[in-house]
Amino acid sequence: MDEKEKLRILLGHWMEHNHEHCEEFRQWAEKAKAFGEHSVSDNILGAVAKLEEANGFLKKALQKSG
Fold first, then answer.
1. Smallest Cα–Cα separation from 21: which of 53, 41, 40, 48?
2. CA 48 to CA 25: how far, in whole Å?
3. Is 37 left (phi over 0), alpha (psi -120 to 50) or beta?
4. How far apart are CA 12 and CA 6, in angstroms?
5. Model's pTM, two decimal places?
6. pLDDT recorded at residue 1
7. Using an 8 Å Cβ cutoff, are 15 and 55 in contact?
8. How far, in Å, CA of 11 to CA of 39, rounded?
9. Tens place of pLDDT for every residue, the chain, 66 residues?
10. Are 65 and 4 within 8 A, CB to CB?
11. Under a CB-based contact definition with an 8 Å cutoff, are residues 11 and 61 in contact?
12. How many Cα atoms are found within 13 Å in the side-chain-facing hemisphere of 38?
């Protein structure tokens, strides 16, 4: 496998890994909200939004690496 193919594989892996983190973060945001920690929940959801934004950039990189 050459470096370019490795990069394509890594980009996909990173996007999936971020997606998994987003799901876990959402669960904990809901738990924090249930504890009455609304600002904590909001901040966790803010992190989710940033990871989703990062995935958008990674997706564009993957598309351009073709």
1. 48
2. 7
3. beta
4. 10
5. 0.89
6. 87
7. yes
8. 32
9. 899 999 999 999 999 999 999 999 999 999 999 999 999 999 999 999 999 999 999 999 999 997
10. yes
11. yes
12. 0
Q: Which residue has the tokens 């989710």?
A: 48
Quick one: tokens of 48? Answer: 């989710």
Look up residue 55 and give its amino acid: N
Side chain identity at 50, as an amino acid letter?
Answer: K
Residue bearing tokens 């909200």: 33
What's the confidence (pLDDT) of residue 16?
A: 98
- CA pair distance 55, 61, nearest whole angstrom: 10
* 41, 30 Cβ separation under 8 angstroms: yes
Amino acid 38 reads: H
